[in-house]
Fold these 3 entries.
Entry 1:
Amino acid sequence: MRKSYVAAHVYMIVGVLSGLYYRELTKINDFEGETQLGVLHTHLLALGMLVFLIVLGLDKVFGLSGTKQFTYFFWFYNAGLSITCLSMLYRGTQTVLGHEVPELFSLVGGLGHIILTVGLVLFFILLGNRLKEHESAARTESTEQTEPTEPVNSSI
C-alpha cells in the first residue's frame, strides 16, 4: 500500500510543478496558443495522483499489493505514464520555444499510451481475480453461518 501512496504523492508534486512550469514558460516567452504543456498538468494529476489514490483504496479493501501481478501493474503503469508525460513535456516545451518537433515524439507518446494500457489491463485482471476470491470467501462464510448447529435443549 505504501507504494501507491508514494506514487500518488510524487505525481501530485510533479503535477503541480508541471502547471507552474507551463504558466511560467508561456509567460516568459509571450506564448499564446495550444501546447501539450497545457494538458500535462491534468495528465499527471488525474492519471497519476488520482489513479493511485483509487488503487490505494482498492488495495485496502482487496489486498492487491504484495503480489507479482501488482508489481507488474505498478511498473508497467508508471513506465507508460512517465514515457507519455515526458513526451508531452518535450513536445510542449519545443512548441512554446518555436522549435520543430520531430515526428518520432508522436510515436514515443503512442508507445507510452500502449504501455500504460498494458498496465491498466494487468490491474483489471488483478482486481477481477481478487473480487472472485473475495466473493468466494463471502459465500463460504455465509454458508458456514447458515448451517444448523446443535439443537438447544428447550426442556429447561
Note: The mean pLDDT is 92.
Entry 2:
Amino acid sequence: MTTLTNTSKLFRVILGLFLIIYALNQFLHFIPFTYGEMPENTKDFIDAVAVYLPYLYIFEILIGLLLVFNKWTPFVLIVLFPLTISFLIFNLTNNDLSKTWTALIIAILNIFLLINYKKKYIPLFS
C-alpha cells in the first residue's frame, strides 16, 4: 500500500507541476513552443476562444498549486477531468498525433489519480 501511496503522491506532484509550468509558459514564454501547422477550423476555434485563454491558464496554475500542496485533491481531480478530456480530444482531432504526448500524459496521470481516490467519490454515486 505504501508504494501506491508514494506513486500517487509523485503523480499528483508531477501533474501539478506540469500544469503550473505549462500555464506559466503561456504567459512568460520561457520554453520555446510552436503549435505548427493546424487545420483551418482549428485556427478559427483558437481565434474564437483566445480572449478566454488567459483565464484558463490562471485556472490551471491554481489547480496545479492545489495539487502540489495536496489541498482539495479529490475535488480538483474531478474539476480537472473534463479539461483533460477536452485537451485530449482537441489534440487527437488536430491531425498530428506526434504532438499529443502532453495530452496523453495529463490524461494518464489524471485517470490514475482518479482511480486512486475512488473511495472519496463513492458518496457522489450512492
Note: The chain has six helices and no strands.
Entry 3:
Amino acid sequence: MDEVAGSYDERDLLLAESLRWGVSRLSSRLRAEQPGSGRALTRLAASVLANLRHGGPLTPSELAGIEGLQTQSLTRVLNDLEEQGHIRRTRSEVDARRQDITLTDAGRDALRAHVRDGNAWLAAALRQTLSPAERGVLQIAAGLLEQVAVAEVDGEAPKDSRASGDGAPPAL
C-alpha cells in the first residue's frame, strides 16, 4: 500500500512540476504580449487593480495579504495608482481608522488596456494551436485551476481569504 501511495505522490509531484512550468511560461508570455497603451502598469499595480476589480473595495492590509507583502510595501504602488486616478481611498463607514480602496473608472480602463493585448494574443494562440475539443478541455481546466487556487491544504486556508472558488472571474 505504501508503494502505491508513494507512486501516487510522485505522479502528483510530476504533475505539479509540469503545471508550474506551463503556467510560468504562459504567464511570462502574457506579460510580454500585454503592454497596453499609455503608461504601462507594473505587475504589482496590475494585480492590485485586478484584485479591486474582482473583489470590490479592500483595505491596504487585505491587498497586502493577497499579494503576500507587508502593507508598507504597497504604499508606493498605492500612492502611484491614486496619483494616476486609478484608485480612490476613503475612510471606512464601519471603522473610521480603516481605509477602503476602490477602483475608479480610470483604473478599470487602465486594467482593461493592460490585459487587452495579452488576451488577444492568447485567444489567437488558442485558436491556432488547439482543436475545439482541446479548447473545451482547457475551459474545464481553467475552472479546476481556480478551485486549486482557493483550496485548503492540510487545514490551512488560502492566503487570499476573499477567494470563493466559484469559477472564473468576471470579464474585465
Note: The first strand starts at residue 87 and ends at 91.
